[in-house]
Amino acid sequence: MSVRTGRRVRTTVFGVVVAAGITATVCAAGPASAREAAPASHQVTQQAMDAAVRDGVPGVIGVAQQDGRTWTGDSGVADLRTGRERQAEDRYRVGSITKTFVATVVLQLEAEGRLSLDDTVEHWLPDVVRGNGHDGKKITLRRLLNHTSGIYNYTQDPAFGQRIFGTEFLQHRYDTYTPRQLVDIAMEHAPNFEPGASWRYSNTNFVLAGMVVEKATGHSYASEIERRILRPLHLRSTTVPGTDSRMPRPSGRAYSKLSTESTGRTYDVTALNPSMASSAGEMVSNSADLNRFYRALLTGELLPPRQLKEMKTAVPMSADTPDAGYGLGLQMNKLPCGTEVWGHGGGIHGSSSMAVTTGDGRHSLAFNFNGDWSGDADAVVLAEFCGTTPAAKPVKPVAGLVASAAFVK
């Protein structure tokens, strides 16, 4: 989902929505003095995680892997009530990171000759994208996957936003939405632009992509992800929950202000029906699984060379982001230190995540903030891949999705 513009967000590398400002008690739980010191090569990353907790994030968990070595960093707590610390195995909702999984399945189907990226949406989903200027005959599957379709983002609908992103969420958290219902919300609005005329992030694109997978295979997108990705890679902590509101164990809690403000009451939003996100952002995973997935993807385990090249063919998102581009469910960002990383960010109520990997798969990082109103994910990424010290040198926001790629409004 997109972000409420009123929030203070410092997460522009891959558009994760994260946030700040809980209580002094939470901040006291974070410093590294309470745990074993991080190795020298990851001290700066640990400092960035600790800074996020001081900024108000209840807890952070992250796993970095480089040349076969694994490091786990954590700060703060997984549960504000019990004080349990976050653990490397903790599962969390990954929001829009789901999009990379969906795009991978679509590209596998193309490699098998079962569809083409140049097929129109109308070809696969007759009469679904229609009304108020939308025309599925003019939109290809490629334009869905790289967000150049112009289709309105259903999560920006005011009535939907009121039910889902404010305190009304507490009464609607278990509501079930079908993919068609979500698309129909978007069709009530005019498109953002003519197909191919610009770039704009829209969760509706990937709800439609999930529907196309089902139409092309006769199986749900969830079952195709499980068969084609989760089982072959042994991603045992990754699930596509559908309408199941429960979090699998082990996991902590997820917290939100349910407001555009970073102050006020903190709500436990752990339980929710993820059908509101559908194939745009409903998945659950953990850091180790996300690292494994992106390494396998970028090193050619999941896609033939031609499809991987298609996926990495990134379009510019704006004139202000020359060092960033969006491919097919996959974003590229060239960091200030020259390192190029690929991945995605994602957020859903109370959970803000990021997973990035170098193009050769040798260095990867996946982490999660269990709050959605503050924090600096850019700082964590830059610390890990560039060695930038947030405490000594303020982190300049990195060109990227400018807080648009997460599934949180």
Automatic annotation (TrEMBL):
Protein name as catalogued: Serine hydrolase domain-containing protein
Keyword Signal: yes
EC class name: hydrolase
Listed PANTHER family: D-ALANYL-D-ALANINE CARBOXYPEPTIDASE, D-ALANYL-D-ALANINE-CARBOXYPEPTIDASE/ENDOPEPTIDASE AMPH
Span of the signal peptide: 1-28
Family matches, as Gene3D superfamilies: DD-peptidase/beta-lactamase superfamily (3.40.710.10)
Keyword tags: Hydrolase, Signal
Domain Beta-lactamase-related: from-to ranges: 49-372
Single Gene Ontology MF annotation: hydrolase activity
Region (Disordered): 238-260
Pfam families named among the record's database cross-references: Beta-lactamase
This protein's record includes keyword rRNA-binding: no
Annotated EC: 3.-.-.-
